[in-house]
């Protein structure tokens, strides 16, 4: 399958890049990544090293690709979005140890409810947003396991499937990071409990700013090659690419199924290049979190995002960044722009103005939610996006009714005048 080859290649590239550039004991770097607290914001480049971070990312992507293969999943756009998102976040929060209790919890739910494991497979993959919970609750004093914490982490995963299904009804598919929204709710309750018993983690901020030329060349090369691969499959042409612009992007808009692999890879490559260019243009560093944002933006280029529906949201977020108290190239604002494209379906469905409003609201709300889950939900933008979508959908529905009511009254008034 083309998608499997595509994902395996990205995984291999990350592993090889990590091995090549590591100038110390790369497995020592990997150990540091595993045992270190990794809630937001913990850049693995900064705490361990670039080589170890890329090795961790490549191995984790490959592990989940193997799971898809073992379950005989026919990969599509959602597979690309899930694996690339995992790979991106494996540079600042997910690692080859802390994701598995969450996955086990989801799979345990499917067994207990007699569901097909494939039904909630992608909930398990995206649910690794809560991986920092495992590190915080399970690991202490290096590799001494807290078994009660492990059971609690598995319970968190067990609760994800029913909550994710319910959360989808709240924003109606207009927040692409639905599991991030779900994880935010779970993280909020967990954070409150931990804080009540003084078991909460301390604030954490690691943000890598070095090795910019090397990282910029790597990221640009990655997405340029993805774009070229898509063009090759499409007979070296952009023919048919504009077809993706007709979709709103609402969940689940799977471009592999709706169009084809070639068009999807072209879109993934373009979004990756746009995201990288934006980060460099505003003077923000290419590091673990920003590469994670670019990978997620590009990955969802297979599942709903395209230039037409992300630009209004990005514009609104930039307006917020330029007018609020945060610097436009601050960690919070650059990540809000990249990840805030979770709201792209609002622009795709309701138009440019509503997309701009969505981005503007997101730029403020996302800065004030991470304290609820203490940074243990890595998809904080998905949490914020869910609330913005819920709020705007209600306003949009009310606005439509108001316009219809005003239009009807005007028609009656005109009719009375003509009579």
From TrEMBL:
> So where does this one cross the membrane?
46-68, 80-108, 120-139, 146-168, 174-193, 213-231, 262-281, 334-361, 381-399
The answer, when asked if Transmembrane helix is one of the entry's keywords, is yes
Per the record, the coiled-coil ranges are none
**Domain of life of the source:** Bacteria
Which UniProt keywords are present, listed alphabetically?
A: Membrane, Transmembrane, Transmembrane helix
One Pfam family recorded for the sequence = DUF1576
Q: Does the keyword Ribosomal protein apply?
A: no
User: Which InterPro entries does UniProt cross-reference here?
Assistant: DUF1576
Record-given protein name: DUF1576 domain-containing protein
Q: Which organism is it from?
A: Fervidobacterium nodosum (strain ATCC 35602 / DSM 5306 / Rt17-B1)
